[in-house]
Design brief:
Length: about 110
Amino acid sequence: MRLRSAVAAASGALMLVLAVSGSASAATGQFRYSYKTADGHDAVGFFNDPESGTCIDIKGAGSDGTSAAYAPKNLTDSTATVFLEAGCMGDVFYSLRPGAGASERLLVRSVVFS
């Protein structure tokens, strides 16, 4: 009888762990972008497995006085919506399907993954 209770408790705990881990979703893959450093050098930044539904301000772009990042490449399995303004704000945005990229003419300061 105790073995049956232990098995039931372990099964319940496993189901709870699987349910909780499934609720925190992330895009699988990498999001890449280019930007100019404060010294004017070209640089490449990236996010690995970014969290879905959370706005990410792009390092090196915007608020610290540098120019916007450009040429985003969405190598994740989720749609990435990129914004010209930080904080995923403003009327200027563009959606990148999984595996898609854009030219250096597309300027970005923040991104959110669906």
